[in-house]
C-alpha cells in the first residue's frame, strides 16, 4: 500500500513540475521586458557594427518613437532605396564607377571612323575589280553593260531616290550619271528614260521633251541592240511631232498653227474639214498627255 502511494505521489509531482515549467515558459514569452519584443531594443544597426558602435559607444536613452527609422534590411544586407545610392536604389549617385560620356562618344567616333575607312577600301577595291573586268574582250556585251552601270554612282543613288519618291533628287542623280566617265550610249539612254519618268511625275513638259530628243539622237546614231532598239531615222520626227502636240495643249496659238498646217496639206479645205482636223488634233493631244497621267499613278 505504501509502495502504491509512493508511485502515485511521484506521478503527481512530475505532472506538477511539468505544468510549472510550461507556465514559466509562456509567462517568459509574453513578458514586455523580453529583448525581442522591447521597442527600446528593436533598433537595427548596419552589418558588422554593434549597437554600442552605432551609438558612439554609449547606450541611447532616446525614446523608440522619436528615433530615425533605419533602412529596410534583406537578410544581412541593406536593401537599396531611392535615397540610398546602392545598386538596388534609383538614386543618381552610386558607389560603382560611372562611364564618362565624352569618353564613350570618343570611342564610338573612333569605331565609326575605322568602319568608314573599311567601307571606302571595299568600295575602291570593288571599283578597281569591275573596271578591269569590263575590259575583258571575251565578255558578253550585256554582261559588260550591267557591270558598267554598277560603276556609276548616279544610277545607284537615283534608284534609291526613286524608291523614296524623291523625283527631284532622283533627276539630279541621273543627270550626274550622264557625265560619269564610265557611261556608255546604253547607260545614257537608260538615264534619259529615268529623267523622263521624273519629269512626267512633276509634269515638266520641257524636260520630258528634251530627254525624248536626246533619246531619239541616240536611237539614230548608236547601237542600242542590247536594249532591243534598232537604229532608225524617224525617231527625231516622232519626237518633234510629240513636242508640237504637247506644246499646243498649253498654247492656243500653237494649236491653231497646227490646224492651219494640216489644212494646207488637205485637199478638202471646207469648214467641215477644218472641224474634223481640229477634233483629230484634240484627240491626239489627249492621248499624248495621258502619258503624264499614267506615270503619276505609278
Helices and strands, with pairings:
Layout (H helix, E strand, L loop, with lengths): L1 H29 L20 H4 L18 E2 L2 E2 L22 H33 L7 H10 L2 H11 L3 H12 L6 H17 L3 H17 L13 H14 L3 H13 L6 H27 L1
Antiparallel strand pairs: 1-2
Helix pairs in contact: 5-6, 6-7, 7-8, 8-9, 9-10, 9-11, 10-11
In short:
The chain is mainly α and 298 residues long. The protein contains eleven helices and two strands.
Walk me through what this model shows:
The protein has 298 residues and is mostly helical. The protein has a domain at 134-297. The protein has 11 helices and 2 strands. A two-stranded antiparallel ribbon has the order 1-2. Helix 6 runs antiparallel to helix 7 (185-201) and helix 9 (235-248) crosses helix 10 (252-264). The chain is elongated. The model is unreliable at 33-69 and 74-92 (pLDDT under 50).
Q: What do the pLDDT scores average to?
A: 76
Euclidean distance between termini CA atoms: 123 Å
Gyration radius over CA: 49 Å
Total of DSSP H or I helical runs spanning 4+ residues: 11
Uncertain spans, ≥5 residues at pLDDT below 50? Answer: 33-69, 74-92
Strand content bin: under 5%
Order of helices and strands: HHEEHHHHHHHHH
Amino acid at each position: 500500500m505504501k509502495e502504491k502511494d509512493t508511485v502515485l505521489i511521484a506521478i503527481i509531482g512530475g505532472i506538477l513540475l511539468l505544468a510549472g515549467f510550461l507556465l514559466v515558459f509562456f509567462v517568459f514569452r509574453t513578458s514586455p521586458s523580453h529583448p525581442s519584443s522591447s521597442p527600446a531594443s528593436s533598433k537595427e544597426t548596419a552589418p558588422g557594427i554593434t549597437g554600442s558602435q552605432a551609438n558612439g559607444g554609449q547606450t541611447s536613452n532616446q525614446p523608440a518613437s522619436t528615433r530615425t527609422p533605419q533602412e529596410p534590411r534583406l537578410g544581412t544586407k541593406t536593401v537599396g532605396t531611392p535615397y540610398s545610392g546602392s545598386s538596388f536604389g534609383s538614386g543618381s549617385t552610386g558607389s560603382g564607377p560611372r562611364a564618362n560620356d565624352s569618353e564613350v562618344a570618343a570611342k564610338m567616333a573612333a569605331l565609326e571612323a575605322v568602319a568608314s575607312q573599311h567601307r571606302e577600301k571595299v568600295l575602291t577595291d570593288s571599283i578597281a575589280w569591275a573596271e578591269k573586268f569590263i575590259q575583258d574582250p571575251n565578255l558578253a556585251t550585256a554582261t559588260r553593260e550591267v557591270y558598267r552601270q554598277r560603276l556609276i554612282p548616279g544610277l545607284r543613288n537615283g534608284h534609291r531616290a526613286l524608291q523614296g519618291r524623291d523625283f527631284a533628287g532622283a533627276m539630279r542623280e541621273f543627270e550626274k550619271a550622264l557625265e560619269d566617265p564610265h557611261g556608255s550610249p546604253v547607260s545614257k539612254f537608260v538615264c534619259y528614260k529615268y529623267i523622263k519618268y521624273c519629269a512626267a511625275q512633276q509634269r515638266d513638259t520641257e524636260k520630258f521633251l528634251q530627254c525624248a530628243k536626246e533619246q531619239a539622237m541616240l536611237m539614230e546614231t548608236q547601237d542600242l541592240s542590247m536594249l532591243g532598239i534598232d537604229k532608225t531615222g524617224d525617231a527625231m520626227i516622232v519626237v518633234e511631232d510629240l513636242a508640237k502636240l504637247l506644246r499646243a495643249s498649253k498654247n492656243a496659238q500653237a494649236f491653231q498653227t497646227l490646224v492651219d498646217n494640216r489644212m494646207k496639206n488637205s485637199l478638202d479645205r471646207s469648214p467641215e474639214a477644218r472641224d474634223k482636223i481640229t477634233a483629230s488634233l484634240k484627240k491626239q493631244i489627249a492621248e499624248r498627255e495621258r502619258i503624264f497621267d499614267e506615270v503619276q499613278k505609278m
